[in-house]
Each structure stands twice: as C-alpha cells, then as structure tokens.
Amino acid sequence: MKKNIRKIGMLMIIFSLMACTKEVDVLEPKLAGSYKIKSIITDLPVDLDNDGVANTDMSKEKDRGYCRFDDTFSFNNGNKGIWADGSDICSNALEPSDDYFNYSYDKAKKTISMEIFHKGEKESEFLELTDVFVSYRDGKQALKFSFYDERYTNRIVTYYLESE
Predict the structure, then answer these.
(1) Does 16 fall in a domain?
(2) Is 72 in contact with 78 (CB distance < 8 Å)?
C-alpha cells in the first residue's frame, strides 16, 4: 500500500512539473508598422512660438512643436516609409505633405539611418536616429528615438511614438 501511495505521489509531481513547463510565446517587437507621436522632448528648452517661454516639452510650443502631434510615421518591411502630416498643419507649411523615406534599421547599434524626400524639395535629407528602442507597452507597440534637429530647434530631440 505504501508503495502505491508513493507511486501515485511521484506521478502527481511529474505531471505537475510537466504542466508548469509549457512554453509561452514571447512577442518580439518589430519596427514595421504605423506610429502616432505621443510626445516630443528636447534636451534643452527652446521657444519655437516666440511667446517668451522656452520649453523642453514640444506639446507646449504652438506651431512647430504642437502641430507635429498628429503626424504618422509608417515603416514597412521593405525599408521604405512615409512621414505623413496630420490635419493640424504647421504655419510654415502651405498644405499637408507626406514625406517619403528610405531607412536602414541596425538593431544592435540601436540606430535608424533615414534618407527623407521632402515634397517640393530637390535634395533629400539624411537623418540618423539614435537610441532607438522598440517595445510593447499596454498592448501597443512603442517606438522611441532621438536625433539632433538642426532644422528647427538646434537641440537633441526625442520622439515617443505608439502604434495605431
């Protein structure tokens, strides 16, 4: 009888261990997808709207900072993408413009090299995004990157985006 109880106990332990070793699928974030801007932060305060108040949070800067928050970044698997203006147009833009780009993502170096083709401009712009981080947060894919913006702020700018 003791042998049977011992065998039953051993079988229960074996079955319970087998039940606990089920593999779990882990989703690895991928860059491809469409993202909306959630925040834009500069390393030093800047006054883009000339109201006398410099901010690091670009949502507080009307015009150049604030108007970017409904833009969409779309990265496809073929190393091409679109930076699409939303409906909130910056004052220096005459109409919404979709800028197409080619990109190369180096996951190990955490960089994205971009060649941007601005509508109406003859020459393309090269942009190196650094500190690239792709993750999942609250069931959505998140993307963070930084770059030196010599076009508008002359600051290091960090974008935080979330998948649509």
Answers:
(1) no
(2) no
Residues comprising the chain, all counted? 164
d(C-alpha 161, C-alpha 132), whole Å? 11
Assess if residue 155 is contained within a domain. yes
Which tens digits make up the pLDDT trace of 136-164? 888 889 999 999 988 777 889 999 999 98
In angstroms, what CA-CA distances link 45 with 14, 54, 60, 67, 156? 61, 5, 11, 18, 10
What residues make up the domain containing 158? 25-163
pLDDT digit string, tens, across residues 11-61: 566 656 555 545 555 566 789 999 998 888 999 998 888 889 999 998 887
Name residue, tokens 């709207």. Answer: 49
**Contact, 131 vs 125, CB < 8 A?**
no
Kindly calculate the radius of gyration of the chain based on its CA atoms and give it in whole angstroms: 24
Phi, psi of 139 (to 5 degrees): 80, 0
What is the number of structural domains in the chain?
1
